[in-house]
From TrEMBL:
It comes from the Bacteria. It comes from Nitrosomonas ureae. GO terms for molecular function: hydrolase activity. Pfam families: Hydrolase. This is Haloacid dehalogenase superfamily, subfamily IA, variant 3 with third motif having DD or ED. NCBIfam families: HAD-SF-IA-v3. InterPro entries: CbbY-like, HAD-like_sf, HAD-SF_hydro_IA, HAD_sf, PGP-like_dom2.
Length: 256
């Protein structure tokens, strides 16, 4: 019998994983920024779902311009213009978060509190900006919650965004832990590819935009993290023996 590993840290993605921020958060904020910049662009729900295949907000804007409005690419200093547009979008997103209308997904707050009580490390590994992470955490878990996380890896601190493994390598390096003793929690195929390329066992909780993606390399795929009062639904992978994910379940998953 092989030696059992003990889970040392949980690495959370943000958008779609901690909260369903995409459709009614980021998408709405992008459209508000387009209006501010007098652009007649509108990212409807279906289009935004397709654009989510491109990770990173600035990268998503550039991809949209190249494929949908190529005539706009001749702007002076295009890179800085995109950065300004994205900065405006981030401000709208922060305002949306402050309203408190986008809650954490089922089981997220419960699991975080359990990890805190057990003194298990937990971190964030995301391609979204630090401002977005901060506004989401403050609006859902409170002002002090930023300090609960041992490491927050966000935004442009690494050269390549997901599905490249850079952000996970960076976070693991900061934690000084081997990937095999940690688990990533993701919601998308790009996130799964990123985590697996960093050799992290990965649990998927599907979101509205990702439920039809392929997750063959995940240890398990679930509807969400579940609550005792509202059990999760298992989709594939290692069988979850109860209706919610806790430390013991995660510890079991890294040993499969």
């Amino acid at each position: 019998m092989k030696n059992q590993k003990k889970l040392q840290a949980v690495l959370f993605d943000v958008d779609g994983t901690l909260a369903d921020t995409e459709q009614d958060g980021h998408r709405v904020a992008f459209n508000a920024a387009f209006q501010q910049f007098n652009l007649d662009w509108n990212w409807d729900i279906d289009l935004y779902g397709k654009l989510l295949e491109i990770t990173g907000g600035k990268e998503r804007i550039r991809y949209f311009m190249e494929n949908f409005v190529p005539s706009e690419l001749n702007k002076n200093d295009l890179t800085n213009w995109i950065a300004s547009l994205h900065k405006a979008k981030t401000k709208y997103f922060e305002s949306l978060m402050e309203t408190g209308n986008i809650p954490l997904r089922p089981g997220v707050a419960r699991l975080i509190q359990e990890l805190r009580q057990r003194k298990i490390k937990f971190a964030i590994a995301t391609t979204t900006t630090m401002e977005n992470v901060t506004s989401l955490l403050k609006s859902t878990l409170g002002e002090e919650s930023i300090d609960w996380f041992d490491v927050i890896g966000a935004g442009d601190i690494v050269p390549s965004k997901k599905p490249a493994p850079d952000i996970y390598h960076w976070v693991l390096n900061q934690l000084d832990l081997p990937a095999q003793e940690c688990i990533a929690i993701e919601d998308s195929e790009n996130g799964l590819k990123s985590a697996r390329a960093a050799l992290l066992p990965t649990l998927i909780t599907v979101s509205g935009y990702t439920h039809q993606q392929r997750f063959d390399e995940a240890v398990a795929v679930l509807s969400d993290l579940g609550e005792p009062s509202k059990p999760l639904t298992q989709i594939q992978g290692v069988t979850i023996t109860q209706g919610w994910v806790d430390y013991e379940i995660l510890n079991n998953l890294i040993n499969h």
